[in-house]
Each structure stands twice: as C-alpha cells, then as structure tokens.
Amino acid sequence: MSHKRHLYLYPFEHSNAFVARTKQAFCELGYVPRSFKQLFGVHNLFHRKDNAVVLNWYEDQPFRKGLNTITRPMFVVSFFFTLLAMRLFSSNVVWVRHNFKPHNVAKASLLYRVVISMLQKIANKVVTLEATPEIKAAVVKHPLYKDDAHLLAKIHAGHQQHRSIDYLYFGSIKPYKRLDALLAVWPQDKKLVIAGYCSDHNHAAELRQLIRARHLQVTWNNAFLSDEELESTVTNTRFVILPHDDNAMISSGTFYYALGLGANIICFDSAFAREKARAFEFVKIVDRERLATQLDAIEYVTSCDVLTSAYQHYNEKAIADSWRPVLT
C-alpha cells in the first residue's frame, strides 16, 4: 500500500478514545490521518483516488445539541451539501455505523431515515463493530482503550490486586442503556456502584426514586468522572454490569473499556451478550427474574486471564488487520 495515501477522519478529535485508538490502526496501515475538513481542498478533486474517508457517528450530526430553530435548518442544509459532495473528493468513503437509533432524539424521525438512506448510497462501504443481521456491512474490530504495551506489562506482572468493588455500572446514563431495568430487579442485599452522569434530569429523578423505593444499597454521585477516576474505579472492580436491551446497541464501548482493565462482565440477554459469552468465559448472561441467585453462582475469572484474552483477540495488529480489506 502506498504510504502517500491520506485518510480523512470524522471526527478527528473526540473525548471517546475510540477515535485516537482507531487512528493508530490507520497509521499502522500506512495512512496519514487528517481532519475531515481538509478533504474539501481543491487539490483533492484531482487526487480523489488517493483519499479515503472514514465517518464515525456522522448520522447524528443533524440532531446535535446546541442548535436552535434558525441554526438547525441551516446546519442540516450544509450537512446534506457536504454529504453529496464527499465522493467528488474521495473514491473510498467508509461509514462506521455505531448505532441502530439516533442518540440525541427519542425515536428515528423521517429526517433520520433520509440521512441513513443517503449515507448507505454515498458510502462505498458500510462497516459495523460487531456482526448484526439487521445491517448489511463489513465488520471491523473495536479497539481496546489500552495499548499493547500496557496489557502485556499487566499480564507479565501477574499480580492480582484486590478489587474492592463487586458490582459496577459505568458510563453515560441514558434511557436506552436500561439502568432502570437493572435497578428494578437488583438484589437488596448486594452493593452496586454507579459511575456516570445522567444529563436527563427527569430520568435521573426516576432512577433515584427507584433506588429509594426499593431500599437499594447503591452508591451514585451523578457527575462526570475524570479519566483517572474512571480508570481507577474500573480497575478496582470485579464485575461490570451491562443491562442494555437487545437491539439497543450494535457494540459497547463499556464492554471494551472494562475488558482492557481486566474486569468480568455480566449482561442481560442480547445478541451482543450472546456473541461475547460464546467467545469469553468471563462474560456471563443473567436472567432478570433470577438475578439474585445467579449473581451468587457466577465464578470470577482472574484479571490476568481476562487481559490475556483481551490481548489475544484485540491487540493492535488484529485491529489494523480488520481494517485492511475495508480501506483497500
């Protein structure tokens, strides 16, 4: 592959480390990642065959927060113009579809369906981070949030530190992630730590009311955690809980974050959970109706064994290799 090929990435910078980790995979393949905005230079009209575009969460743009009734229509028009012009500047447009439904609206609107339809037509390739029968797409591997050097150092050290948090739910708190469903059946004799911020004040109030009404042993400070605080919390956890409903997500950054820090995973039943439980002994599926008895029966897998499996399946070469056929 030519080392002169450029890859224009949207977004180029993001608080989600998925973007930075994926950039590293592109560099491994000989690409030079650039900001998406740089794609639309006149010179790229004459070098479109040398350019690749990778779009993450692009379908969410017309629904971004902070736009009003005047600025949103203007933004949507510019969004569609950019979308239509994209293929003039690149011969390979790759759309990474992260979600079944939009994040910032309650349900899929007509506008969202139009955006999805146009992206499917304009993108040369659609990719997802897990195989799903609902979407015809190539599959690339989700990167871990820790690099190979970190994983190997932890594996070779072999030290099993004490983990004082038995059960943890972490990440942004939104209705589709079904923390409410978890709290509705959570055993009263088990401690649960919640580490995440809920920006929906009504939903946060509902969750707090549920905790009080059921007299649950839940610790929750409804605030953002720093990267250091989150890493420390997950590193100190035995079991991370994923209560998502089926078809609520294609992949889960929470899963890969926890995996890279050696935690075991407990899930409610979903296609994603079934796939991961088949692959890893430290992923367990529980029945909501029998949660209390099943939690007591789950065998803990050591963090060293979790990290070894994480490295074997999701090392940096494996991530880059999964992207190779998509970008060529």
UniProtKB/TrEMBL annotation:
Entry's transmembrane regions: 74-95
Source organism superkingdom: Bacteria
UniProt keyword terms in alphabetical order: Membrane, Transmembrane, Transmembrane helix
The keyword Transmembrane helix is annotated on this UniProt entry: yes
Phylogenetic lineage: Bacteria, Pseudomonadati, Pseudomonadota, Gammaproteobacteria, Alteromonadales
Protein name as it appears in the record: Glycosyltransferase family 1 protein
Source species: Alteromonas ponticola
